[in-house]
Amino acid sequence: MENNKHTPGTWFVSNFGDNDITITSNDRDTTHVCRINESMASSQFNHVREEAEANGKLIAAAPTMLETIDETANRIAYCIDLYHIPEEAVAMLRGEIDNLNAAINKATK
Question: Residue 69 and residue 73: Cα distance in Å, rounded?
């Protein structure tokens, strides 16, 4: 995962103002990753604000999820090489590795 082009570090959800949800990095400093502008936020449209906050949390979790997916694919491949696993299971696990790698590529390419 060394060649990633995204902002490094842990990302955090920060709320700035009534209509913005901001994703920051580097231990909550001012490095902005992205901003979700939720211009319809009000008590009348509270569900829209909740959805925007949920989207912000998902975006903020992306670097951790990406790293976890990569580590999981590598561990599965390592176990396939290390242990005597039935061929049917190996084929299934290799398929799962392909799925994990496809998710990584979707996020990074």
Answer: 6
Contact between residue 33 and residue 23 where contact means Cβ atoms under 8 Å apart = yes
User: Domain of 52?
Assistant: 11-108
Q: Please enumerate, as own/partner, the contacts of 75-84 that have beta carbons within 8 Å and a separation of 24 or more.
A: 76/100
Q: Quick check: is 5 in a domain? A: no
Write the CB contacts of 95 (distance below 8 Å, at least 6 apart in sequence).
none
- The dihedrals phi and psi of 30, each to the nearest 5 degrees, come to -95, 15
Q: How many domains does the chain have?
A: 1
List, for residues 13-33, the tens digit of each pLDDT value. 887 666 788 888 875 556 888
Summarize pLDDT for 37-53 with one digit per residue, the tens: 876 545 455 677 788 88
